[in-house]
UniProtKB/TrEMBL annotation:
Pfam families: HGTP_anticodon (PF03129), tRNA-synt_2b (PF00587), tRNA_edit (PF04073). HAMAP family: Pro_tRNA_synth_type1 (MF_01569). It catalyses: tRNA(Pro) + L-proline + ATP = L-prolyl-tRNA(Pro) + AMP + diphosphate. This is Proline--tRNA ligase.
Amino acid sequence: MRQNKLLLTTLRESPGDAEAMSHQLMLRAGFIRQLAAGVYTYLPLGRRVLRKVEQIVREEMDLAHAQEILMPTLQPTELWKESGRYDVYGPELMRLYDRHDREFALGPTHEEVITTLVHNEINSYRKLPITLYQIQTKFRDERRPRYGLLRGREFLMKDAYSFDVDWNGLDQSYWSMFKAYQRIFARCGINFRAVEADAGAIGGEGETHEFMALADIGEDTIAACTSCDYAANLEKAEVGIRSEKNEENIKLDQIAKLYTPNIRTIDELVESLQILPSEIMKTVMFIVDNQVVAVVVRGDHEINEIKVLNYLGAKNITIANSEALEGISSIAVGFIGPYGLDLPVLVDHSVVQMNSGIAGANEFDYHYQNLNPQRDINLEHVGDFRNVTEQDSCPRCSEGIINLHSGIEIGHVFKLGTKYSDKLGAKFLDSSGIAQTMIMGCYGIGVSRVLSAIVEQNHDENGIHWPLSLAPFHVHLLPISVKDDLQIQVANELYERLISHGIEVLMDDRDERAGVKFKDSDLIGIPYRIIIGKDAGEGNIEFVNRRSQAKEMMHIQDVVEHVSVLLKNSH
């Protein structure tokens, strides 16, 4: 491609609303342009990278015996109501009406559509197992689109769905996809980690893993053990329990009231009583599926609402406001504690391990001191209800501790079981002619999100350095002066030779200063740069590695073979 004809405008400054480095660099380098909040156009360079990600995905999906299809973006909302997700998805589901006043949704995902398709097409065990996939645009009405392609309202996704006759079959399909994902992200040059995760709105009846690209800008937190392979998303990560309670022989003082006027928060208690947050029992009231529930954790810990939901087998959780608590006489907002509460009280393991602590007295302007969990709190509901923290014990091994990392979710695999096949009637006849429900799995990759993840991990102060597998071009060919006939002649000849050997080349044939060309080349991030300058008459060029900035002089006749070897060794 000749750069003079390429639709490419680079920017010297980053747009003010671009927070993430990947967002800034892809805008500045002319890969994407914003049309509306969370909605982007892929310019030629961006589209080339996107197609390469798609190609890697297709090759690995085909290798895993998945078959590509393409399903409609426009989905009748009757399907979503039938599956029970219409209300669960809430305002993120983009809804619209046709001229006959029939409601549709722009697909954020395709479990309902694929299950309906397979229900209509497959009725015998002889046609199972089967895995179908597509690469398609998805739509979610994000409340706050941000970070460019990392959190958009319109994005490209690969979603695959497996259908098996039993759970053993699903297990094989699941791990086949898991390994395919490992190969995909490795080929894309991403530093990633597979972590245990919560199924979220997709739901399911079995294990699920997220694939996380490690990056400081990541909105997800990963808890990983320092000694074993355990890793999980923060919302799923378990807390390692060494002992259920403190067995030290300590004489316990009797519970007593403290007068604490207008002291309501953990920080205020710490400052007023000169104690540590870990000496406080924090009680938070929630509305869980229309029931008021109290959750108690240590003052230095944060409640994990997903764990609370999963423990109670509930669907919805919100923090209870003052109105919701008005009818409960034993509660004084701002001074709530677990002692004497006449409602379900979920107590975290870390609280049970305390000998004594400070907690609200359920009376305005008072707290209890010397509150002992074993003696003073109803321990009917004890469990893991908090987020893990740095230095927590590993839940899988006895040696490791937990470290926290930031990550970008780029893939997610689920064991759905019969969540959708039951509701949408996806059944098959077994070898005895008896109808059975198909066992499903679901596997997604944020194809467009991969671009941002790559840039977050591969950039410097001057721009992007793309991995060779995804770069828009392999080589950036720069004649220093387009007014120098010899340089242009050499550049044109080398350009044709490189292309004839299957090497993708962008030739900067613009009439620009050398400094402008070098800055743009660094910004765009093509892996190898060939500079044709004053030594062209002697048959020499300068070969530059974008990532390392290593430079070497090379004879023009050796360039094609040199690049060919680099490409071969990269596979």
